[in-house]
Amino acid sequence: MRGPARTKAKTNMKTDVLIVGAGPVGLTMAAELVRYGLSVRIVDKNSQRTDKSKAIVIWSRTLELLDRMGPGVTDRFIQAGLKVEFTNIFAGGKQIAQVDLSTVDTPFKFVLLIQQNETERILEEYLAELGVKVERETELQDFEQRADSVSCNLVYADGATENAEFSWLIGCDGAHSTVRHRLGMTFEGSTLLNDWILADVHISGIDGPPSVNIHWHSAGILALFPLGGTRYRVIADVGASASDGIGVHGNPTLEEVQKILDVRGSKELRADDPVWLSSFTINERKVADYRKGRVFLAGDAAHVHSPAGGQGMNTGMHDAFNLAWKLALVSRGLCNAEPLLMSYSAERSAVAKLVLEATGRATKVALMRGEVEQSLRNHIASLIFGLAPVRHMMASVLSEVAVGYPDSPLNTSCGFEHSRPAPGERAPVHEQTSAIGTGSTPRFALCAAADDGAYKGIMGEFAGLLEPTLRPTSDSGCLWLVRPDGYVALRARSGDAGAVGAYLLGL
Length: 507
Ligand SMILES: Cc1cc2nc3c(=O)[nH]c(=O)nc-3n(C[C@H](O)[C@H](O)[C@H](O)COP(=O)(O)OP(=O)(O)OC[C@H]3O[C@@H](n4cnc5c(N)ncnc54)[C@H](O)[C@@H]3O)c2cc1C
Prior knowledge:
This protein has 12 helices and 26 strands. It has 507 residues and is α/β, with parallel strands linked by helices. Strands 1, 2, 8, 9, 10, 11, 19 and 20 form an 8-stranded mixed β-sheet that branches. Strand 25 (478-482) and strand 26 form a beta hairpin. Helix 1 (24-35) packs parallel to helix 4, helix 3 (73-80) packs antiparallel against helix 4 (116-129) and helix 7 packs antiparallel against helix 8 (337-366). The structure holds flavin-adenine dinucleotide (FAD). Flavin-adenine dinucleotide (FAD) is lined by residues 20-26, 43-46, 54-57, 116, 139-140, 172-174, 178, 198, 278, 280, 299-300, 307, 310-314, 316. This is 2-polyprenyl-6-methoxyphenol hydroxylase. InterPro entries: FAD-bd, FAD/NAD-bd_sf, RIFMO-like.
């Protein structure tokens, strides 16, 4: 019960950003903004971070982006997680596919299995080292946008309230987002009419190197994710939910989990010692626009997915990486606010749309019923996955290194269609060189063949926006201007400093 309402003294000093929600997305957003020098407050209505394993997958591209955050950040995740290279699909008792993540062109040639409570712990501790503490038991109730600020009403567990001004408000407040509701945005999409169970249990009887194993069985799907030692995450569909998508199954018992392993997996598997038994239904929804004026949405507040492919949390964290450098440049007065901030929604909404389509398709394929349909699916899948280029493409898509912004309003190309990467694509990430976008200033990188002095002028003119040294490439015909988040902004003729200058001037 809240105590009698008190009002805290109105905060006069305007903070740059209020982040609502200290889940993985809010914490990533805060860490990125703070390293770029913005003043940030991050609030969460809960008294402590989640103790649940929830999202357990961090893909290669997310590790690359975390690596830009600060020295050793990615290593903290790797030390707390489990590296897994293979995803196997079994059907009719036979293995029909293996996706090998060690083939992906990235320094992180694996998927990291790590529980969400650990992900949040690492991010929250890192943020504290940067000097920002999560303000817990602090709930955003409402806000009002003004010409140059957002006035926010916060309420504390003891009933005290605070009204504070911020330049920007970012709603990272999850699927039931208060910020989204207050903006009046609809969460368009649907709820799949299937019930699912989730069990974190210890399993014996699995041999070989740790791998993600997905079983397509006539009775339904079974997915097994290793979490280290004998602990596994089990996910399985368990029949239809109510017509309004409300789950009817309830949490499973250990006996039910064992039965599913017996039928859909193999008789050798023995489940024991349950850590978490839960159930869920799948929502596939997104907002049309991630921004209204000075208010932004990110993570589950903006899009929710089927857990097939484990893309939800990763996609949300990428929202943060996309928005933070743009907001930093705008706050420093180095760029025009509108085109840069508008591109956040255009880019991230397009990615969420693709993720929703892909994970929705994967879920439907896995849920196919009927003997004929299933045997056709298994046959086609084993043919398609027999092709090495398909397996490689799958690995690149799953690891999110293939994610890009081909239709971004920030892209510019002056020809050179055959020279990759194209505008909007991820610039290659090399282990030997420092990642683009590290440090306390969001800077673009100029990648071109040996410097013959052609770029000296623009390097000086745009010192606030450009890395001070050229990054050499082997392609002597072309240059690339790469954004602080590692995606190509401009492709032009080598030596065309004018194109680079025009691009940066137009920002
Ligand atoms: C059972 C389960 C399994 C999942 N498995 C996977 C998986 O395998 N892979 C994957 O990628 N994703 C998975 N997900 C999804 C993943 O957990 C979410 O995508 C992720 O948590 C989203 O992070 P977020 O920071 O956007 O939101 P959240 O983690 O939901 O955090 C939002 C935070 O905002 C706070 N908040 C809300 N409203 C307010 C307010 N008004 N004021 C202050 N604070 C507020 C909440 O307390 C919460 O801490 C799973 C989810 C569940 C539930």
